[in-house]
Amino acid sequence: MTPETTAIATRPEPPMTQSVPATSGSLPSQLLIETGRLLRRWSRQQEVMTSTLVLPVLLLLMFDLVLDRSLGLSSDADPIYGFVPMIAVAGAMYGAMGTGLSLYGERRSGLLRRFWVLPIHRSAGMLGRLLAECVRAAVVTLAVVLIGLLLGLRFQQGWPGLFGVLAVPVLVIAGFTPAVILVGVSRIGDKVVQLAAIVVLIGMFFNSGFVPLDNYPGLIQPMVRAQPMSCAIEAMRGFILGGPVATPLLQTAAWSLGLAAVFGVLAVRGYRAAAES
């Protein structure tokens, strides 16, 4: 063995380093790409379109045709001013059930795992889904408002009132989405529709948009007044008719932030575990 080969053989090897794929593109651009992908995917899924557009419109027509006259006798205000905010908020939450079921399908098919190993920001998937849910909530609210206009709804506050009405369900769904993601990526993700339906149905019959608050028994009036759907409905009613807006809007924001804080961390952990499984 020559001195040169002896030196090469005894030379210490450089430490092994784990190659980490570099991300391509900025987070905002990847977030918009993921949002667009989800919106295009949802537009082709029957269960999402049914829960997002068909069901809220049918509910609004049913409430107006069946309950408008009977509820109108017990209140000075036209019930449509309670129905439209209630159905808009409930429709946004119902639509999240369909998207939660779609997320469960992506987990079962391995699509989440394939996205996880791509050179993209890990947070783009979650943030893109949240943004897509907000866009979907605005679309369903606009559809419900248009049907409400045909049924007699009128905005007393003009365009600012309309933009306020569109924004409130978006605020609600921003807090509701982490809970849906948490269930959607879990092993019981196929039960997300049943679980969320129970929550939304109870909320729909115990809120200030269904009947005036005074019509409920005195014992449960504080709970009905404080539940998140009632806060959102009162804020939207204020944007339409010109009533108080600040307090119910702040209450809605507090509910949304609270839900996001409670379920957000759990949803991130569940999403990561589902993508790595």
Structural key phrases:
277 residues; mainly alpha; 11 helices
From the spread of the alpha carbons, the general shape counts as elongated
Strand percentage:
under 5%
Sketch the topology as an H/E string, one letter per element: HHHHHHHHHHH
From the N-terminal CA to the C-terminal CA, the straight-line distance is 51 Å
Structural class: mainly alpha
Radius of gyration based on Cα positions: 24 Å
- Assembly annotation: single chain
Flag low-confidence runs. 4-20
> Largest sheet, described in full?
none
Helix content: over 70%
Helical element count? 11
Describe the overall structure.
- The chain is mainly alpha-helical and 277 residues long.
- The chain has 11 helices and no strands.
- The protein has helices at 3-10, 27-43, 46-73, 80-109, 111-116, 123-150, 158-184, 192-205, 221-226, 228-241, 246-276.
- Helix 4 (80-109) runs antiparallel to helix 6.
- 39% of the residues are buried.
